[in-house]
Amino acid sequence: MLAIGAIAGGPSVTAATTGAAISVRGLTRRFGAVVAVDDVSLEIAAGEFIALLGPSGSGKSTVLMSLAGFDLPDAGRILIGGEDCTHLPPHRRNIGMVFQNYTLFPHLSVADNVAFPLKMRGIGRAERRARAEAALEVVRLSGFGARMPRQLSGGQQQRVALARAIVYRPRVLLMDEPLSALDKNLREEMQIEIKRLHSELGITIVFVTHDQGEALTMADRVAILRAGRVQQIAPARTLYERPANLFAAGFIGDMN
Ligand code: ADP
Ligand code: MG
Predict the structure, then answer these.
(1) What does 111-161 look like in DSSP terms, one character per residue?
(2) What is the pTM of this model?
(3) Which residues form a coiled coil (predicted)?
């Protein structure tokens, strides 16, 4: 594993980063009469890049929020790195999260935005600075620390959000449609950046998208969701060649 972003003798974003395996067993979440997540089980290997793909309302975000600990399931268990996290609060799970609306704090500099999770964890100023700079280097924004968010392009702001998600060296990175607000060119550029980050950090990534092409080009394996249930979980090639059912075939075939 490369130690990208390492400062000689100083803290590295990658130093302690090794992906954790994730085990989701019988996850179920209801909202009134709606079964948002219906008995979902997933085994994700350490360091794997998995995409959750499905149409709007299929339960992708709810699975991700359960993994992050922002939403508690009605049934089922979640293990991260072998530890039962089902009832742990988000800050005890060692995960980083990037949302679709990657809101940065507009009144904080780029460096302070990135360092924010470290401040929340009571880490001292000098270490915060060094680790924020290392994280900015990983997303290729060295030297941008003093700028304000409004002085950056959309893609650069999204990279700051990525730096903020990895600054405390999580073992798992969860991303909920992180690129859908970007235009086509930026989206493709960021897809490549995220893939690079994945191979450099060795982190486990769960990437939610409703875009078939994005899922199939980026992920090691794709889990297709429909109405809260996993239809098929397989590498892209298998999904093309041997779709498990008509929904999977139609959904993958729908790609242009
Ligand atoms: P996706 O991310 O695939 O679009 P979601 O996980 O957001 O799907 O939603 C799955 C289902 O659960 C949808 O029918 C949605 O309306 C419902 N749902 C999600 N969150 C809530 C909530 N907080 N309250 C009520 N219903 C919800
Ligand atoms: Mg969603």
Answers:
(1) HHHHHHHHHHTT--HHHHHHHHHHHHHHTT-TT-TTS-GGGS-HHHHHHHH
(2) 0.89
(3) none
Q: Which two tokens stand for residue 123?
A: 């880490």
59 CA: nearest ligand 1 atom: 6
Point out the ligand 1 atom lying closest to the alpha carbon of residue 55: 3
> Which residue's CA lies nearest to atom 7 of ligand 1?
61
Q: Are 132 and 124 in contact (CB under 8 A)?
A: no
Q: How close is the Cα of 60 to the center of ligand 2, in Å?
A: 6
Closest CA to 170 of 220, 145, 205, 146: 205
Ligand nearest to the CA of 176: 2
Which protein residues are within 6 Å of ligand 1, measured from CB?
31, 34, 36, 54, 56-62
**How many whole angstroms from its chain centre is CA 205?**
5
Q: Which residues pair with 34 in a beta bridge?
A: 31
E strand spans, the chain: 22-31, 34-44, 49-53, 75-80, 83-84, 95-98, 172-176, 204-209, 221-226, 229-234
| Sign of the alpha-carbon torsion through 47, 53, 56, 58 | negative
State ipTM.
0.99
> Nearest ligand, CA of residue 177?
2
According to DSSP, residue 242 is labeled S
User: 87-144: per-residue pLDDT in tens?
Assistant: 999 988 999 999 877 789 999 999 999 999 999 889 999 999 999 999 999 888 999 9
Is the predicted pLDDT of residue 219 greater than 60, yes or no? yes
Average pLDDT, the chain: 90
Neighbours of 39 (CB within 10 A): 14
Contacts for 151 with CB less than 8 Å, ≥ 6 apart: none
